[in-house]
Amino acid sequence: MSLLTVNQLKLQFGGLIAVNDLSFTVEKNSISSIIGPNGAGKTSVFNMITGFYRPTSGAIELDGISLVNRKPSQITTLGMARTFQNLRLFPNLTVLDNVKSGMHCRTKQTVWGALLRTKSQREEERLIEEVALECIDFVGIRKYTKRAAKNLPYGAQRYLEIARALATRPKLLLLDEPAAGLNYEEKQYLIQLIRRIRDEYNITVLMIEHDMGLIKQISEQITVIDYGCKIAEGSPEEVLNNEKVIEAYLGKEDVI
Amino acid sequence: MKKYKKPSLFLLVICMFILPFLLNSYWLDVLTLVLFYVVLTQGLNIVVGYTGLLDLGYAAFFAVGAYTTAILMTTFHWSFWLTLPVAFLFAAIAGVIIGTPTLRLRSDYLAIVTLGFGEIVKILATNLEITGSASGIYGIPRPAIGSYIMASQKDFYFLILIVAIISIIAVYRLGHSRIGRAWVYIREDEDAAEAMGINRIKLKLLSYATGAVIGSFAGSIFAVKMSAIAPLSFSFLQSVMILLAVVLGGLGSIPGVVIGAALVIILPELLRGVEDWRYLIFGVSLVIMMIFRPQGIWPTKNNTEDVDDIETEDPNQSISISK
């Protein structure tokens, strides 16, 4: 069964068509990827799915609920979390406070609760901390819990962003180039982490990635886009041997 | 250090309650003004410090509180205590009104709109009949508790002291709740906050409204203390002085802005001896302060550990040291 359905999605900035007639689905409990050369429109697709861009036309559905014309915060509340291509942490806050942000949409204390320190407010605060610590443990950055996010090593910042997204308790996790800037060991760790997210939390993962090695190892379903259009889809073997894909990445062989 | 925090705070509060019996009426008046500024800076701290929205028209909310109380007490003969909830309501509405057009604006543009709003409120107060035009409203009755009528300097000192304590506790508690954290997330990175499921429009408006309510609280008490109010008390300069206290003390830091409020009021008083040079020295000291301590006198720590602390705690490292 598909969790995310994207149908005939189009995004136009003035005369430039960034994404054109794109359709794909993401199966529940799968690890899927969107790949494509630089500027192909991958991040634009992510931004439309998460509500940061409004599509010119087309439909996006999460678990049967339409996401078009919703605010990013509403979409997160419906069960979708994302990370950003260029880290978007809360730099001056601790790792713990960063991850606590994810629980905002799962809790509901108001100003009154906070002012009066009601019992339910204190219980909710305890729950927020508990979930945040669990997510921090899960990605393996427990020793940095009280450090400011900006003072973390780069790899740990990437894992922190994933922990923060997990704290929103999503059904679908969108990772925008999670391996960018990571070294070999960190990439291996990331692969394990993504698998554990799917296996232990039953969260469906959709990612954009450039690292073909990484994609071949964990992706079950790949959608390839170029110039905003889908040019291929299927399993890693199918896609990576596809002529159109090779052409998009390496260019066409000139016949002299 | 943390162990002594509660007892020392308790001691400070007791001192504040004893102080009026030791001071002459001049310094008691100065201290009362400091406490007004403590309330105002705490309110502005929510908007500027927590949420990171620059507000150059904050005195407008001070005015909304003062005028609401003054009008209800003089024209409609309400009891002072009953005017408070109405003042809060009007201030919250004013907060939402100023908040709505600024939602899409950032930094400098935001500052200009809030500045304009502050001026609009002042000009309205100067020209409307109900607010007594330029001469303002006078003869505001004294508030009463039962049959006791609050009239002395000390009465108002204690009243504003209690309100200052309430507002400090309120701002502290809000800061340590999901609402307060959401404000800080918006300050740190608006888009990331939105992506984490935080409705930035709702929370920004809530921030304006909450800050406005605290500002109006100070305004209501100001009206009954002075027993006369005029538009001049709510000028742009007033907004700037409140903002100055917040920035000087340390954005988002509760003890910081309390110190900032005290400095902004007491320093010019201490400099009275040098007469004409007073504001020059005050200005120069502010410039020096901002150059050498741009983060404020008592900045927030956000509970972060210093990086060095962690390195020494790292088990691998301590093993290599013991070898």
Structural summary, described in words:
The complex is a heterodimer of chains A (256) and B (323). Chain A folds into two domains: 1-79 and 170-256, Rossmann fold (3-Layer(aba) Sandwich); 90-168, no CATH class. In chain A, strand 1 and strand 2 form a beta hairpin. Chain A has 256 residues and is of the alpha/beta class. Chain A contains ten helices and ten strands. The N and C termini of chain A lie far apart (48 Å). Chain A has a six-stranded mixed β-sheet, sandwiched between helices. Chain A has a four-stranded antiparallel β-sheet with strand order 2-1-4-5, covered by helices on one side. Helices cover 39% and strands 24% of the residues of chain A. Chain B is mainly α and 323 residues long. Chain B has a two-stranded antiparallel sheet with strand order 1-4. Chain B has a two-stranded antiparallel sheet with strand order 2-3. Chain B has helices spanning 5-18, 25-50, 59-74, 80-102, 107-127, 153-175, 178-188, 190-195, 200-226, 236-249, 254-270, 278-292, 307-313, 315-322; strands at 137-138, 144-145, 148-149, 228-229. Helices cover 71% and strands 2% of the residues of chain B. In chain B, strand 2 (144-145) and strand 3 form a beta hairpin. Chain B has a single domain, classed as ABC transporter involved in vitamin B12 uptake, BtuC (Orthogonal Bundle), CATH 1.10.3470. Chain B is globular, with a radius of gyration of 21 Å. Chain B contains 14 helices and four strands. Chain A binds chain B through residues 50, 52, 71-74, 76-77, 81-82, 84, 88-94, 97, 100-107, 109-111, 113-115, 117, 121, 124-125, 128, 143-144, 146-148, 151, 164-165, 168, and chain B through 170, 173-174, 176-182, 184-185, 188-189, 191-200, 206, 210, 302-305, 307, 310, 313-314.
